[in-house]
Every structure is written in structure tokens, then in C-alpha cells.
Amino acid sequence: MPSDSGDLGSLREQLRDREAGKLYRQRLMLDSSQAKQVSLAGQEYLAFCSNDYLGLANHPALIAAVCEGALRYGVGAGASHLISGHSTAHHELEEALARFTGYPRALLFSTGYMANAGVVMALAGRHDAIFADKLNHASLNDAALVSRATFKRYPHLDLTTLERQLAASRAKRKLVISDAVFSMDGDIAPATNLLALCEKYGAWLMLDDAHGFGVLGAQGRGTLAHLGIKSPRIIYMATLGKAAGVFGAFVAAQPEVIETLIQHARSYIYTTASPPLLAHALMKSLDLVESEEWRRKKLIQLIVALKQALQPLRWKLMPSDTPIQPLIVGDNDKALQLSESLRERGILVPAIRPPTVPQGASRLRISLSSAHDMEDVARLGAVLRELDVAS
């Protein structure tokens, strides 16, 4: 019987190399619910590491809605959407999301990763071309690679290069894909200009608004509302486990696009539908996102306060007006040390390293939530200034 020790030895060597390069990842295990104050191994920490931008993940109204949904729909969906797993809760949420985003139709997916995979692989294939910002989320890149379409990447926000690529392409179908808010830099894509290029060269524009939905635009309607643009060429994806505080994702687009996804998106067709109780809870979440404008106003105030508090540091924040505030450290080792020093002082801020970010661009990714207070931001600023002086 052949031994697998050689294969295991190869894996061990890869893991050792990752650890030696200060790139080894480890999971935190919370004892508490998701909130600004979390518990790890019985110790309390002030957390700046969640995408719960509006502080809804532990909202009493959503907890009550989950309980109500469980009593009405049970726990599991039992089947895929195309068999018997599509409930009235899913249908009502899709209709509500379409109204909320201003699109004719919306389609629920279990995760943002699956939504991106579904759209890209359903709309682009062997004779097509995909054009992508180099800082796009991994899910968009993975989907483009699997699609078998020609895959062109352009430097971050470099629309001159993108136009040159679009003009040279003879592909049957062209699809431009981009984060709307970039998850590690926190900057906003120039979607108005991206749309103009797509209209000029006959391309679709797919925007991943995982980090803009609920946060940007009037009533939290997202980056498109923030920029004041709308077009049948745009395919809009957003997630429901960040600002919305629950779980899942959706795609909003023209009816023909949604029907194409129902027929051809493999990550939609071949998976069990998400629990309908979550869709039921998300109806309440949408109400809170739309009605509680104070949460977004507070976020803006916190962002301004954080920038002022960290201005004296040798490490500099990237230019971001979103709750994602990356503090560039550069060196992997130093970023890890800084994150650990914060943790020793009761503050959680993750160190983000390659391959998630480019080499030499390791950082602390500070995530703000409307659950935070000014005192929390002041505490983080004071500790970072102390560490800056001490290092």
C-alpha cells in the first residue's frame, strides 16, 4: 500500500514556509456575539475587525425576527431553489431588494463568493473577455479564471489601460468586473467612468458592492446611489452579512440577466437554498438599514475622528472615506507585532498581509461600526500613538 508520507511532508514544508514568511493565518474564536466588545477565551476586547458596519449583527429586532422565522419556516431549506427550497421568505426578500436597489429583479445567493462565481461564469465563457481591476476581491478573480474567458487585469483604477484593453478586444461578449468599495483599501471605484467605458465599447459592468451596500448612498442604497448612476448595463452584487448584519448575498439586474442566472449560474443551481428564517430576518434588517440614518451619520463622524487621532503616526492611513481604514505598516513582521501589541492592551485589529495585499503593503485593517463610540476611537488612537513612540 503506497505511503502518503511524501505528500504530507510536502504540505508540512509549505506550511513551514508560510509560517517563516510571517504569512501563517490563525482563526480567532469568539465566546460572545458579534459586537464592538467581544470575548476571546474569557477575556474582553474592543474590536475593530468586523464588517458589521451598522452594528446590526446583534440587534434585538433581528434576533426576534430570526426566532419568528424559525417558528414559521423551520430551520433548513431542505433543497435547492430549483427543487423545493425556494420559500415565500426568499421570494419576498428578492422583491424587497429589487425595490431597495431600484432594479427590476434580484436573485438571492448563499454567499458573496457564490454570487460572484455565478454571475461571471454564467455570462462569460470561452469566446468572451473579462476585464478586472487588480485589487478586486479574490472571488471575482477566481470566477474569471474558471470561466475560461480571456482574462485581462488592469492596474488599480487605471482606466486608461482599461480603455486600451477594451478597444483592442474582439471578444463576443465583454464583462468589466470591479469591487465598488475595495475591501482592503477602502476606496471607491470610479463607477461613473467605468460605466462610460462600458457604454462606449459595448461591455457589461459588474460591481461587487459588498462593502458599500447599507453604508453608502441615501438610506444605505449603496455605491450606485452614492454616485447617482443607473444603467441596464450594470449587474449589481451586494452581500447581506456585513452592513445588513445577517448572511447571504444578492444580484440585482435586468430581468433577462436574472433569468439567465437562474438557468445557468452553477453556484445557484447546485446548492441548497439558505435557511428561509434568514431571509425573514433580512426583511427587518432592510427596514433598519433604510430608516435609521443616524447609523451612517455616526459612521462619518467616527471616520473623521479616527483620521484626526492617527494623523501624528509614522504609519499613515490610506485615503478612504468608508468604514475601512487601512493603516499601512509595510513589513509583515511589524504589522503582526503591532496587531499583537494592540491585543495585549485589549484591542483587536487584524494584520493583513500578502497574498491578500501586495508585497510590502502589510497593514492594520481598522474597521469602524456605528456601534463604536468616540471614546472607543480615542482609545485606539491613544494606544497606537503610545506604540509609535515606543517602537
Describe the structure.
It is a single chain. Helix content is 45%, strand content 17%. It has 391 residues and is α/β, with parallel strands linked by helices. It has two domains: 28-54 and 293-390, Alpha-Beta Complex (Aspartate Aminotransferase, domain 1); 60-291, Type I PLP-dependent aspartate aminotransferase-like (Major domain) (Aspartate Aminotransferase, domain 2). Strands 3-9-8-7-6-4-5 form a seven-stranded mixed β-sheet, sandwiched between helices. The chain has a four-stranded antiparallel β-sheet with strand order 10-11-14-13. Strand 4 (129-133), helix 6 (138-147) and strand 5 (150-154) form a beta-alpha-beta unit.
What are the SSEs and their pairings?
Blueprint: H1 5-20, E1 37-40, E2 43-47, H2 60-73, H3 81-85, H4 88-101, E3 105-109, H5 112-123, E4 129-133, H6 138-147, E5 150-154, H7 159-168, E6 174-179, H8 191-201, E7 203-208, H9 223-227, E8 234-239, E9 249-253, H10 255-264, H11 266-269, H12 276-291, H13 293-310, E10 316-317, E11 324-330, H14 332-344, E12 347-348, E13 351-352, E14 362-367, H15 374-390
Parallel strand pairs: 2-12, 4-5, 4-6, 6-7, 7-8
Antiparallel strand pairs: 1-2, 3-9, 8-9, 10-11, 11-14, 13-14
Helix pairs in contact: 2-12, 4-12, 5-6, 7-8, 13-15
CATH topology of the largest domain: Aspartate Aminotransferase, domain 2
How much strand content do the residues show?
A: 15-25%
Query: Residue share in helices?
Result: 40-55%
Shape: globular
Radius of gyration, CA atoms, in whole angstroms: 22 Å
The number of distinct structural domains comes to 2
The tally of helices reads 15
Count of β-strands: 14
The largest β sheet comes out as: 7 strands, mixed
Strand order of the largest sheet: 3-9-8-7-6-4-5
CATH-derived architecture of the largest domain = 3-Layer(aba) Sandwich
Secondary-structure element order, as H and E? Answer: HEEHHHEHEHEHEHEHEEHHHHEEHEEEH
Unreliable residue stretches? none
**What structural class do helix, strand and pairing data support?**
alpha/beta
